[in-house]
Amino acid sequence: MTHTDLTDTEIIKRILQGEQVLFAQLVQRYQQYVFTLVLRFTGNREDAEEVSQDVFVKAYRSLADFRGEAKFSTWLYTVVRTSCITFLRKKKLTIASMDNERTLAQLENRESGFNANIIEQKSRHAMVNAAIRLLSPDDGQLITLFYKGEQTLEEIGRIMGLDPNTVKVKLHRARHRLKEKMEKYFSYELEH
């Protein structure tokens, strides 16, 4: 069995038994997931790269706290969220609550207007990410966790403190709103 065939739980167990070099496997598996989530909170690539590194340092130091009750990615999400909140507070942004819709919208749009990014980024992936940033924070979080983080409805429910059925309904609505944003802001790109 190669290292890449090991499950997250098996890798974590071996790291805690002294094979620290295996942590690179977890980083490799989750670096895109972490970066995508962090970018959603910070709004710019430079900050996202810095915070992503910090997330993995904190995850490594706290690995013994992972109990395996949920997927590693679910546990890692809480490290991402905590690290982002800490980072944003250090940047002296006034954050009444990370769940405050207007505050998060301001954070996501403060770096540069997304219109400039649309002109620069023509790929479908970039358009979808731009459309996700136009959604409310809750909708964006649901879409990101379900499609990019590949979390189950139950795991998303645990992360967001919601019943899985509520998550299912909210996800359906979020998908509909994402489609509306895509059609409204990217209709030309979608046609060509």
Fill in the keyword field for this structure.
mainly alpha, globular, Rna Polymerase Sigma Factor, Chain: A, 192 residues, RNA_pol_sigma70_r2, Arc Repressor Mutant, subunit A, RNA_pol_sigma-70_dom, sigma factor
Written account of the structure:
Belongs to the sigma-70 factor family. ECF subfamily. This is RNA polymerase sigma factor. Residues 128-178 form the RNA polymerase sigma factor 70 region 4 type domain. InterPro entries: RNA_pol_sigma-70-like, RNA_pol_sigma-70_dom, RNA_pol_sigma70_r2, RNA_pol_sigma70_r4_t2, RNA_pol_sigma_r2, RNA_pol_sigma_r3/r4-like, WH-like_DNA-bd_sf. Keywords: DNA-binding, Sigma factor, Transcription, Transcription regulation. With 192 residues, the protein is mostly helical. The chain has 2 domains: 1-103, Rna Polymerase Sigma Factor, Chain: A; 112-192, Arc Repressor Mutant, subunit A. It has 10 helices and no strands. It has helices spanning 8-16, 23-42, 45-61, 72-90, 101-109, 114-120, 124-134, 137-148, 153-160, 164-191. Helix 2 (23-42) packs across helix 3, helix 2 (23-42) packs antiparallel against helix 8 (137-148) and helix 9 crosses helix 10. The longest helix is centred in the last third of the chain and has 28 residues, at 164-191. The radius of gyration is 18 Å and the shape is globular.
